[in-house]
């Protein structure tokens, strides 16, 4: 925490929550046919949240901290704060929620149970924002568990046997993680009182760790285990590829905005704002986390190689990419910390673009396998271009967003005196290229030669007269997020760019 | 003092209304019962304020002090339990008034009155003999309520009767021992005078056995999964949410007053905890294997009883017994609210689908989303997940277990929740649409509007209390355990 | 053995006997009688407690016994009604089977 930070009591953090909670509750009450009202509510909430965040960013960067608190049980409050890191995460989820909402409205057009879907969709974002704004571990825990519960109906949405099975496995993993988190939070609260996040670590926790390093280590490990499930750290990642049965906007939300990101956010919070990097390193857990993250990075990439199902390949890619965040958080270097934080945004935008595109391919052409995508670039050039941009970003090529992350992490590794990180990053990059480049190549080469001669013959022609390759509500979000992938890479040095903000956030952990 | 007289209302008002209901037509009986429940709820609030103000509210009935007269007193535990009873009765009677299927016959109304009076009486009783008499009244009313479930429920009711009355005999022995040893049945006086470790241990042991039978604590639970589902839905709700709470509270009271007096209490408490642990596991596993909604929910009650008795071993080991005490009470409250919601919602689903079997519920989530949501939310509270009241109780019990270094109880608290949510999710899964069929082709008999609203309102209450539980905790702390009410 | 002890032991013995039979016997009427026997045991114990040794019995245990008897009467009444229903249902089922 900077010394010049001013804490102001304010209802605004609660308003940030309400911008999605109120639409959620209203939408539940709507009848299925009230499409216009439902979409209006959705978009109004999403836009209100984005506007609110834009207004708040300069204030918070200038050192103002908004705070709201309520008594939960005597001696333990529910606390919301907008420190730099929480607002950073809120901004990410607010922006991507807006994009995903537009996409989901188009994606689910005409399908049943939309009130239920969009209600839980908004609740999902509410829970994520709650996680972001949580000022202490208890509040974090409450919203973390809430996120698990409200995403369950989304994963199960289609109601098919596969969807219900995926939802069941998802629930088993995440509730199991929740148990560990509850244990860790309750334990630490018992030992040191209410655990309020504090950039650089909480002094009480440091004292406690000095007194009883073994217990502190166990608590730290249990907490990491709890958030590690959602962050899909190896070997707790099993649910992620199976949860792919969800509709595309849900996958996008799960992978880029809400669930996986909440796990990664939790790792950073616990490492930097509960224990503090120095203490975590002293307890030996930072190294352990770095190793687990590195293993996950390589493991996820290797598994992605073998998947023919496009969404599954993307899911394993997420397993790998999210661990970049954990790896950055596990290195004793300010630039690595900033790299971890900026990768939350970069990975979010890149991965959401990829899922939007995968959904477009599946929706328009009924293609879900990598091997079926040959020549799709001619039929859907815009979608394919967006996909290509995001995939190249994932590999880490300049000038895309992913380059910034990898570059920062690499420098951070050197800075922290852990040059082996470079090897991990290189291996991963080679593997990223190995599973993304073939897709790109397939998309842009000619369609299968054994088809009926004509280039267009393999794919059904677009059904609409607009001349667009797909409905605008599906296409525009994908294009927008893809453009941001370029922008975040090119304009990394601008004021309020993710990279600049990430450095400001990271500074807090390095007093 | 007017506040003291309030203690009588939750006992005598339902009793009077119940007696009237026997001769009134259905609509009038229903209206009166609902009004009485609302009045009881308001009295609970007033008593809560009085307790916050000045500690336990005591009333010497008819001005006679013990040992001659009867002392009734409301402390934090009494107040919140009376509140629960009012809410449960209100919910069950609202639904039963809207749809007679949920009641099972006109006898429902007088019997509910008698049961509510007895339960509330147990909550304010401060002597073991009054508690015994009220518990018997409750048993008789409950057995008759089960028998409202039609001809086939008679066997279940009878089985319940045999176990419950056997339990009563054990408790009567405990009452006799208390009097024989201390010369009084008043709890506070008896606790002052008791000096024989073995006899006090025997009193606790007899109470444990007797109340275990009445509460369906493992291994004396086998009557419950037969009796509760056999009854009409509103009765099932009251039995699970309320009736078993009376015997739980008596068990707690005996532990509260006599526990500190004997070294034998700790091993007995551990035994209770072990039985509770077995209940959580056994009830949970069997709930996972049942195919009917009501049966699943009844086994869930068997499992949840395990949590409710967990405070017994914890108050002996934690450095601050108050945390375990309040946590256990909150988990019990949460169970009451959630179980009423669940049984009523299950009744609504079964009425609509024409079957209580899980495989007959496909598609109900699209047609009756609110009812399914009520089951889901109630399950969340039972599993002790945030943001519900169940979580608050679990949090405090987890704190108490950590504090006591009681790893077994801790593992049980943490793992049992997963089991709970597993069978809740199983019920929810059964309501999803069949693959490929999004029209919900099968026509459902839509239940009355009240039947849909009430369970959801209760589920919402679980969430509200889960987010602002501090008021409940203040009331419970204002007249703490062993506070000598 | 004093009279008091005799009462006590007899009471306890009858209680154990009754409870065991209640749990073991299948026939409903027999079970009900067993339950009544068990309660008789408890009453006997209670009456023994009323003996204060000075010839004047303590009224409180006697009041307990009286209440207990009333309760058991009510319980027995309900149980008989239920038992009749059960047996009737069984008879009906048998008829259907025949």
From TrEMBL, chain A:
Keywords: Cell membrane, Membrane, Transmembrane, Transmembrane helix. It is a multi-pass membrane protein. The keyword Chaperone does not apply. InterPro entries: CPA3_Na-H_Antiporter_D, ND/Mrp_TM. Residues 134-431 form the NADH:quinone oxidoreductase/Mrp antiporter transmembrane domain. Pfam families: Proton_antipo_M (PF00361). It is found in: Cell membrane; Membrane. GO terms for cellular component: plasma membrane. Its main location: membrane. The chain crosses the membrane at residues 6-29, 41-62, 85-105, 117-134, 140-157, 169-190, 218-240, 252-271, 277-302, 322-342, 348-365, 386-408, 420-444, 474-494. The keyword Protein biosynthesis does not apply. Belongs to the CPA3 antiporters (TC 2.A.63) subunit D family. This is Multicomponent Na+:H+ antiporter subunit D.
UniProtKB/TrEMBL annotation, chain B:
Belongs to the CPA3 antiporters (TC 2.A.63) subunit D family. It is found in: Cell membrane; Membrane. GO terms for molecular function: NADH dehydrogenase (ubiquinone) activity. This is Multisubunit sodium/proton antiporter MrpD subunit. The chain crosses the membrane at residues 28-52, 64-97, 128-148, 160-179, 199-218, 230-252, 264-284, 296-316, 322-347, 368-386, 406-425, 451-473. GO terms for biological process: ATP synthesis coupled electron transport. Keywords: Cell membrane, Membrane, Transmembrane, Transmembrane helix. It comes from the Bacteria. It is a multi-pass membrane protein. Residues 125-418 form the NADH:quinone oxidoreductase/Mrp antiporter transmembrane domain. Pfam families: Proton_antipo_M. GO terms for cellular component: plasma membrane.
UniProtKB/TrEMBL annotation, chain C:
It holds the Pfam family Oxidored_q2. It is a multi-pass membrane protein. The keyword Transmembrane helix applies. Keywords: Cell membrane, Membrane, Transmembrane, Transmembrane helix. It is found in: Cell membrane. One of its GO terms (cellular component) is plasma membrane. The chain crosses the membrane at residues 6-25, 32-50, 62-83. PANTHER family: ANTIPORTER SUBUNIT MNHC2-RELATED. Belongs to the CPA3 antiporters (TC 2.A.63) subunit C family. This is Multisubunit sodium/proton antiporter MrpC subunit. It comes from Microcella alkaliphila.
């Amino acid at each position: 925490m900077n010394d010049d930070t001013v804490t102001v009591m304010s209802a605004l953090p609660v308003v940030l929550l309400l911008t999605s909670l109120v639409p959620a509750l209203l939408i539940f009450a709507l009848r299925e046919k009230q499409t216009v009202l439902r979409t209006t509510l959705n978009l109004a909430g999403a836009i209100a949240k984005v506007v609110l965040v834009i207004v708040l960013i300069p204030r918070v960067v200038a050192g103002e901290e908004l705070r709201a608190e309520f008594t939960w049980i005597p001696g333990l409050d529910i606390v919301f704060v907008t420190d730099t890191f929480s607002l950073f995460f809120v901004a990410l989820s607010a922006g991507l929620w807006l994009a995903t909402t537009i996409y989901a409205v188009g994606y689910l057009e005409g399908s049943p149970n939309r009130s239920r879907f969009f209600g839980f969709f908004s609740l999902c974002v509410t829970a994520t924002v709650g996680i972001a704004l949580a000022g202490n571990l208890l509040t974090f825990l409450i919203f973390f568990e809430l996120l698990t519960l409200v995403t369950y109906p989304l994963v199960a949405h289609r109601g098919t046997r596969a969807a219900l099975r995926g939802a069941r496995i998802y629930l088993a993993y995440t509730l199991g993680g929740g148990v560990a988190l509850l244990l860790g939070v309750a334990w630490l609260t018992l030992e040191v009182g209410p655990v309020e996040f504090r950039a650089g670590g909480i002094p009480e926790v440091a004292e406690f760790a000095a007194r009883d390093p073994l217990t502190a280590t166990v608590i730290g490990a249990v907490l990491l285990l709890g958030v590690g499930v959602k962050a899909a750290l190896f070997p707790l990642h099993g649910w992620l590829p199976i949860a792919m049965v969800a509709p595309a906007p849900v996958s996008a939300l799960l992978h880029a905005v809400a669930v996986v990101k909440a796990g990664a956010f939790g790792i950073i919070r616990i490492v930097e704002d509960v224990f503090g990097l120095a203490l975590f390193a002293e307890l030996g857990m930072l190294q352990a986390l770095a190793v687990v993250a590195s293993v996950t990075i390589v493991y996820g990439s290797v598994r992605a190689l073998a998947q023919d199902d496009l969404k599954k390949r993307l899911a394993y890619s997420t397993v790998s990419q999210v661990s970049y965040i954990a790896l950055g958080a596990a290195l004793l270097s300010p630039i690595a910390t900033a790299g971890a934080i900026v990768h939350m945004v970069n990975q979010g935008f890149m991965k959401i673009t990829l899922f939007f595109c995968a959904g477009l391919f599946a929706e328009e052409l009924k293609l879900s396998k990598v091997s079926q995508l040959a020549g799709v670039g001619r039929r859907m050039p815009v979608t394919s271009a967006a996909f290509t941009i995001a995939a190249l970003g994932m590999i880490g090529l300049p000038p895309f967003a992913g380059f910034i992350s990898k570059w920062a992490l690499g420098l951070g590794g050197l800075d922290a005196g852990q040059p082996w990180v470079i090897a991990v990053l290189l291996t991963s990059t080679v593997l990223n290229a190995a599973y993304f480049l073939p897709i790109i190549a397939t998309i842009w080469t000619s369609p299968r030669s054994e088809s009926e001669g004509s280039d267009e013959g393999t794919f059904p022609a677009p059904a609409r007269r607009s001349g667009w390759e797909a409905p605008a509500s599906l296409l525009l979000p994908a294009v927008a997020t893809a453009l941001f992938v370029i922008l975040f890479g090119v304009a990394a040095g601008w004021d309020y760019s993710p990279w600049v903000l990430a450095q400001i956030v990271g500074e807090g952990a390095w007093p | 003092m007017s506040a003291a007289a309030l203690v009588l209302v939750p006992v005598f008002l339902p009793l009077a209304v119940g007696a009237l209901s026997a001769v009134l037509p259905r609509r009038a009986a229903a209206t009166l019962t609902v009004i009485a429940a609302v009045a009881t709820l308001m009295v609970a609030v007033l008593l809560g304020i009085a307790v916050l103000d000045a500690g336990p509210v005591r009333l010497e009935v008819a001005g006679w002090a013990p040992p001659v007269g009867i002392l009734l007193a409301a402390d934090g535990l009494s107040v919140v339990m009376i509140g629960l009873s009012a809410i449960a009765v209100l919910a069950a009677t609202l639904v039963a008034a809207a749809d007679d299927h949920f009641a099972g016959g006109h006898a429902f109304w007088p019997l509910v009155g008698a049961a509510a009076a007895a339960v509330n009486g147990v909550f304010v009783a401060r002597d073991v003999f009054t508690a015994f008499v009220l518990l018997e009244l409750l048993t008789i009313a409950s057995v008759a309520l089960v028998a409202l479930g039609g001809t086939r429920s008679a066997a279940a009711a009878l089985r319940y009767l045999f176990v419950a009355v056997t339990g009563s005999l054990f408790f009567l022995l405990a009452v006799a021992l208390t009097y024989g040893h201390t010369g009084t049945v008043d709890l506070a006086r008896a606790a002052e005078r008791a000096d024989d470790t073995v006899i006090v241990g025997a009193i606790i042991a007899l109470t444990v056995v007797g109340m275990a039978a009445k509460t369906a604590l493992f291994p004396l639970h086998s009557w419950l999964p037969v009796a509760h589902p056999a009854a009409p839905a509103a009765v099932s709700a009251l039995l699970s949410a309320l009736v078993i709470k009376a015997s739980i509270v008596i068990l707690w009271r005996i532990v509260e007053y006599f526990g500190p007096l004997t070294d034998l209490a700790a091993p007995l408490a551990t035994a209770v905890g072990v039985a509770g642990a077995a209940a959580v596991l056994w009830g949970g596993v069997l709930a996972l294997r049942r195919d009917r909604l009501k049966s699943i929910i009844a086994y869930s009650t068997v499992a949840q009883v395990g949590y409710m008795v967990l405070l017994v071993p914890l108050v002996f080991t934690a450095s601050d017994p108050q945390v375990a005490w309040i946590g256990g009470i909150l988990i019990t409250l949460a169970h009451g609210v959630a179980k009423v919601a669940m049984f009523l919602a299950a009744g609504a689903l079964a009425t609509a689908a024409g079957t209580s079997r899980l495989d007959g519920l496909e598609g109900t989530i699209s047609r009756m989303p609110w009812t399914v949501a009520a089951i889901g939310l109630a399950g969340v509270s039972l599993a002790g997940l945030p943001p519900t009241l169940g979580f608050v109780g679990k949090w405090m019990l987890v704190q108490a277990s950590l504090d006591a270094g009681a790893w077994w109880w801790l593992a049980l608290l943490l793992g049992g929740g997963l089991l709970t949510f597993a069978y809740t999710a199983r019920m929810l899964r059964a309501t999803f649409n069949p693959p490929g069929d999004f029209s919900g082709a099968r026509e459902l008999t839509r239940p009355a509007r009240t039947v849909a609203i009430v369970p959801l309102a209760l589920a919402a209450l679980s969430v509200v209390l889960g987010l602002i539980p501090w008021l409940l905790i203040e009331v419970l702390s204002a007249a703490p355990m062993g506070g000598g009410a | 053995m004093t009279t008091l002890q005799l009462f006590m032991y007899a009471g306890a013995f009858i209680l154990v006997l009754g409870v065991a039979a209640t749990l073991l016997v299948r026939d409903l009427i027999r079970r009900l009688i067993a339950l009544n026997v068990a309660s008789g045991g408890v009453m006997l114990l209670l009456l023994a407690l009323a003996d204060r040794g000075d010839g004047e019995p303590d009224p409180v245990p006697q009041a307990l016994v009286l209440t207990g008897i009333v309760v058991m009467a009510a319980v027995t009444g309900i149980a008989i009604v239920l038992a009749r229903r059960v047996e009737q249902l069984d008879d009906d089922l048998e008829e259907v089977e025949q």
